[in-house]
C-alpha cells in the first residue's frame, strides 16, 4: 500500500500526501487531511480547475489559511501563481479580492462562512458590494456544520445579514453537483455572488450538475398536500421526509430554492394556490433567514396560505456532532416529516 493513500473499506482512496498517517497505521487511524478528504460534496476546487482548463485565465483563488478545509487546495497546487493565502487575516483577504477584481481578475474567495460572512461582513459590504465588483465568494461549513467547534464557528446568521446587501446575489448549492453548476452557470455574471455551502458531507441530491440560474429554483418532487421550499442541507432532508410521509399517504412537493436573493417567487405562488401550506427549511436562524424571505413574498403578494418555518430557533446552538444537532433541532428527514404532520393537523 502506498504511503500517500490508504483504502478504507467503505470509502474511496484518500490523498494523504500531506498527512502523518502512513500504510503501517491501523485502518481506523485518521488525521485532518484524511478526514477532510471525505467531504466529497465540496467540489469547489474541481469546478474551478475545470473552468481554468477551459480557458478562464482570469480565475484566481483567495483563502485565509483554509485552502485544504474548503477544498480549493488542488487548484492551488495546479495554479500556485493564481492562488493567494492571506493567513488568518480574513478581512484583508476580502479587500485583496476586491483589489484583484478591480484589476480585471475574477477572484473566488473560499473560506468558512462564519469568518467570511460574519467577521468579514463590513468588508464584503464596503469593498465588494458597494463597488459592485465581480467577486465570487463561497462560504463553507455554514449553519451548525462545525459542531463541537462551538458558537464562534457556527454560522446561523449569515443569510439574514447578506440578503440585505445591495448588488449581492445570494445562492445556496445543496451538494457537489450544485456547486459545479453554481460556478459554471454564473461565471459571466457581472457583480458579486455569495454561495452558501455546507461542509461537504451532505447527502447527494443531484446525480449530475442541475439547471442553475440567478433567480431560479428546481422542483424535485410533486405532491398535493404541502410544499417544502428548502435550501442547502434541508433539501435532502425534505426529500427524506417526503419518502417517509409517502408511506402514510401524505404527498409533498419539494423545491430546491437555491437562489435566495433574488428569490424565485413562482414556486411560492404555486404552493400557496395548490396546497395552502408552505413549509420552509434552512440550516439557519429562522429570524431573518430564508423563511423570512418567503414570508415577505407571501405578505407582499397577499397569498392566502399558512407558513411554517423549519430552521434553527432564535438562540445559540448547543454543541455536538453535526448529525446530532440536526436531529435535536429537527433539521433531518424525520424532523421535517414531524413538522409537516403537525402543520397539516393544525391546518385541518
Oligomer state equals single chain
Task: Tell me the strand order in the biggest sheet.
Answer: 4-3-5-6-8-7-12
Using only CA atoms, what is the Rg? 20 Å
> Which H/E pattern describes the elements?
EEHHEHEHEHHEHEHEEEHEEHEHEHH
Main beta sheet strand tally, sense and closure: 7 strands, mixed
Approximately what portion of the residues adopt beta-strand conformation?
15-25%
Q: Which structural class should the secondary elements be placed in?
A: alpha/beta
At CATH level 3, the topology of the largest domain is Rossmann fold
Number of domain modules = 2
**In the CATH hierarchy, what is the architecture of the largest domain at level 2?**
3-Layer(aba) Sandwich
What is the CATH class designation of the largest domain?
A: Alpha Beta
- Could you give me the name of the CATH homologous superfamily of the largest domain? Thiamin diphosphate (ThDP)-binding fold, Pyr/PP domains
Proportion in helices: 25-40%
In short:
The protein has 348 residues and is of the alpha/beta class.
Walkthrough of the structure:
This protein folds into two domains: 44-196, Rossmann fold; 218-347, Rossmann fold. It has 348 residues and is an alpha/beta fold. It is built from 13 helices and 14 strands. Strands 4-3-5-6-8-7-12 form a seven-stranded mixed β-sheet, sandwiched between helices.
Q: What topology emerges from the helices and strands here?
A:
Elements (H helix, E strand, L loop, with lengths): L4 E2 L7 E2 L16 H5 L7 H10 L5 E5 L9 H6 L4 E3 L4 H13 L3 E7 H7 L1 H9 L6 E5 L17 H5 L6 E3 L4 H10 L7 E4 L21 E4 L4 E5 L2 H14 L5 E5 L2 E3 L4 H9 L2 E9 L4 H11 L5 E7 L9 H7 L4 H15 L1
Parallel strand pairs: 3-4, 3-5, 5-6, 6-8, 7-8, 10-11, 10-13, 13-14
Antiparallel strand pairs: 1-2, 7-12, 9-11
Amino acid at each position: 500500500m502506498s504511503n500517500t493513500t490508504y483504502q478504507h473499506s467503505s470509502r474511496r482512496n484518500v490523498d494523504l500526501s500531506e498527512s502523518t498517517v502512513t500504510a503501517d497505521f491501523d485502518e481506523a487511524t485518521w488525521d485532518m487531511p484524511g478526514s477532510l478528504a471525505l467531504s466529497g460534496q465540496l467540489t469547489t476546487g474541481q469546478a474551478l480547475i475545470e473552468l481554468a482548463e477551459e480557458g478562464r485565465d482570469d480565475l484566481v483563488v483567495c483563502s485565509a489559511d483554509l485552502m485544504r478545509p474548503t477544498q480549493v487546495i488542488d487548484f492551488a497546487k495546479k495554479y500556485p501563481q493564481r492562488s493567494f493565502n492571506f493567513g488568518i487575516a480574513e478581512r484583508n483577504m476580502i479587500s485583496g479580492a476586491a483589489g484583484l477584481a478591480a484589476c480585471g481578475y475574477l477572484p473566488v474567495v473560499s473560506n468558512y462562512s462564519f469568518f467570511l460572512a460574519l467577521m468579514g461582513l463590513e468588508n464584503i459590504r464596503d469593498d465588494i458590494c458597494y463597488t459592485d465588483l465581480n467577486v465570487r465568494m463561497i462560504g463553507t461549513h455554514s449553519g451548525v456544520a462545525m459542531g463541537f467547534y462551538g458558537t464562534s464557528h457556527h454560522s446561523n446568521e449569515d443569510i439574514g445579514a447578506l440578503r440585505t446587501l445591495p448588488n449581492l446575489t445570494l445562492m445556496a448549492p445543496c451538494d457537489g453537483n450544485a456547486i459545479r453548476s453554481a460556478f459554471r452557470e454564473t461565471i459571466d455574471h457581472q457583480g458579486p455572488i455569495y454561495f452558501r455551502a455546507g461542509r461537504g458531507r451532505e447527502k447527494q441530491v443531484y446525480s449530475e450538475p442541475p439547471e442553475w440560474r440567478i433567480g431560479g429554483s428546481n422542483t424535485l418532487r410533486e405532491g398535493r398536500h404541502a410544499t417544502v421550499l428548502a435550501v442547502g442541507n434541508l433539501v435532502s432532508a425534505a426529500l427524506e421526509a417526503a419518502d417517509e410521509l409517502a408511506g402514510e399517504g401524505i404527498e409533498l412537493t419539494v423545491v430546491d430554492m437555491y437562489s435566495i436573493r433574488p428569490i424565485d417567487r413562482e414556486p411560492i405562488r404555486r404552493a400557496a394556490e395548490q396546497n395552502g401550506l408552505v413549509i420552509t427549511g434552512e440550516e439557519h436562524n429562522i429570524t431573518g433567514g430564508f423563511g423570512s424571505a418567503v414570508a415577505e413574498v407571501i405578505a407582499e403578494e397577499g397569498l392566502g396560505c399558512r407558513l411554517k418555518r423549519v430552521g434553527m430557533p432564535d438562540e445559540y446552538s448547543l454543541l455536538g456532532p453535526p448529525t446530532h444537532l440536526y436531529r435535536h433541532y429537527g433539521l433531518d428527514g424525520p424532523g421535517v416529516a414531524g413538522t409537516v404532520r403537525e402543520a397539516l393537523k393544525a391546518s385541518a
